[in-house]
Amino acid sequence: MSLFEALGEGLMVTVIGLIIVFAVLIILMLVMMLMKVVFYKPQNDSHHVPSQQVPAPAPVPAAPVEESNMDETELIAVLTAAVAASLNTSTYHLNIKSYRRIENTSPAWNKAGLKDVIDARF
After folding, report:
1. 25: domain range?
2. 91: which residues sit within 8 A by CB, 6+ positions away?
3. 75-101: burial string, b at 16+ Cβ within 10 Å, e else
4. Domain-embedded: residue 108
């Protein structure tokens, strides 16, 4: 087998492989387009005529903010101690003038993971 015959066979295998890969990709694209036609039902608002007038739902009142019974001076002392510990300094040099609570909007899986990590350390 000569060098040219080996190169010719290698080229033929490469071309056939590329044709097969692109053929499979085109088949997948067609299947996905068919699934979109079969399963997706677009809603046209311009042609949609409601048979009954549905009233809008009543707005849900916001949950009342719970007042904390914790003493403000105790909270300031805890915050001052935490900041002093993280900065490796004395509480004498710190003066917390104001603070505000922020709402925890992290997902449930994030809260569960954080709880697991904290529980594993203690």
Report:
1. 1-40
2. 80, 81, 84
3. eeeeeeeeeeeeeeeeeeeeeeeeeee
4. no
Question: What pTM, to 2 d.p., does this model score?
Answer: 0.33
Give a yes or no: residue 78 inside a domain. yes
Residue with tokens 């007042």: 67
Q: Longest C-alpha distance within the chain, in Å?
A: 91
Tell me which amino acid residue 54 is.
V
- Residue 61, in any domain of the structure: no
Q: Mind listing the pLDDT tens digit for each residue in 25-66?
A: 999 999 999 998 888 776 665 555 555 554 555 555 555 545
Residues with Cβ < 8 Å from 14, sequence gap 6 or more?
A: none
Structure token digits, residue 54: 């549905």
